[in-house]
Amino acid sequence: MIPALMPTYNRADLAFERGEGARLWTEDGRRFLDFGAGIATSSLGHGHQHLTRMIAEQAGKIIHSSNLYRIPQAETLARRHVENSFADSVFFCNSGAEANEGMIKAVRKYHAENGHPERYRLICFDGAFHGRTMAALAATGNEKYLAGFGPPVEGFDHVPFDNMNAVRDAIGPNTAGVMIEPVQGEGGVRPAPLRFLRELRAMCDEYGLLLALDEVQTGVGRSGKMWAHQWAGIEPDVMSSAKGIGGGFPLGGIFAKEHVAKHLKAGTHGSTYGGGPLACAAGNAVMDVVSAPGFLDRVDQVARHLWRALLALAAKHPTVIEDVRGAGLLLGLKLRPEVNNGEMQNAAVAEGLLTVAAGMNVLRLAPPLIITEADVDEAVALLDRACLRLTPAGAQAGAQAAAQ
Predict the structure, then answer these.
(1) Cystine design at 386: which of 27, 141, 294, 347 (Cβ 3.0–4.6 Å)?
(2) Strand order in the sheet with 353-354
(3) In the 8-state DSSP scheme, what is residue 231?
(4) Domain 50-290 bears CATH identifier 3.40.640.10
C-alpha cells in the first residue's frame, strides 16, 4: 500500500527535531554534524538567531499579500542584490527550478523582442542539473530523469563539459545562448575552469549570444565570493539563484542586466508566492549576514582549510578517495570505483556526519557558511573513521572492537 507521503525519495531513517549552527539532533537524541546543509541551502546553519527572529517578526505581521500589490520587503531585497551583483533587476520566485525556467524564458524573450524569434536554443552541458520541471529537465539532459515523461521540451543542445570546440560546433542559426553551472553540483561537484568561463563569455559576445549562469547551488557566498562567476572576473547576462539565498526558507531569483530584464514586462512572467513578504524577510536576513564586512573572507579562509584537510585525507586513504574537487564550501570526494558513494555516505552517518551523494561517484560536502576551522577538523576526523569502515583492515578492526 502506498504511503500517504508520496515515495519520490529514498529517505534515510533520520528525523531531525532541532538544530543549532552546524549541528542537528534527531528525535531520539542523536547528534550529527551537518555538512550537507539541506543540499547547500541552510547557508546560515540551523537556529540562526537573526534569521529566525526576522522570519518570526514578519510572520506576526503579514505572510502573504500577492504581487498584485507592492511588497516593500521584496523591493529592499532586490535593491540589495543589485548592489551586490552584476544585475540591474531581479525577479523573485520560490525555487531553483522556477528560477531556471524563468531564466530560459528570459533568454528566449530577449531574442524574440530583438527580431530573432528563431533563436531559442540553449547550449547546455553533459553532467548538468537544472531542476525537475519539464524545461529544466530538458536542459539537464539526463536520460534517467527524463524517462517516462514523454518528449523532452525542445530547444536544448548538450555538449561535453569544458570543451570549447564542441561549444562552437553546436552554434547554429537557432542558438540563443549558453547555460552553465560554474560548479556542477549534482553532476559530480565539477568546477568549470575559470578559463572556460572566460572563453564562454568572449564567445557569447562574439556571436551575439546570452550567457546564462545557474548559480542555484554556488551563489550567495558558497564559493567564498558572493557569486562563483566573480572568481573568473566575468559577468553573465542573466543568472538564476535559490537554495542559500533564503537560508532554508524557499526563495529563488532571476538576476538580469537591463538589456535582458526590460523585456520581461507586465504579463510576461509571474508568481503567486514569489517574492512574498515572509520569504523576502528571510532573504534580507541572509543578506544582513553574508554582505557584512569580512564574512565572505572568512568563508574563503575556512574553505581553504577544508580543502587542505581533504587533500590530506585523500593522501591517507588512497584506496577510498581518488580525488578532491570543487570550490569554496562546495567540495566533493571522488571515490575509487570499488567504493560506492552511497556506502560512504552511510559510513559517514554512522560516525555522526551528514553529507550528500552526487553524480560520478562523488561524496558532496556543502556545510553551512558559518562553520569554523574546528568544525572542519571534526568533520574530517569523522570522514577519516568513515574511510576506515570501507577499507578491509578498518572493517576488520571495527568488527574486532565490536566483538570485545
Answers:
(1) 347
(2) 16-20, 23-26, 31-34, 353-354
(3) G
(4) yes
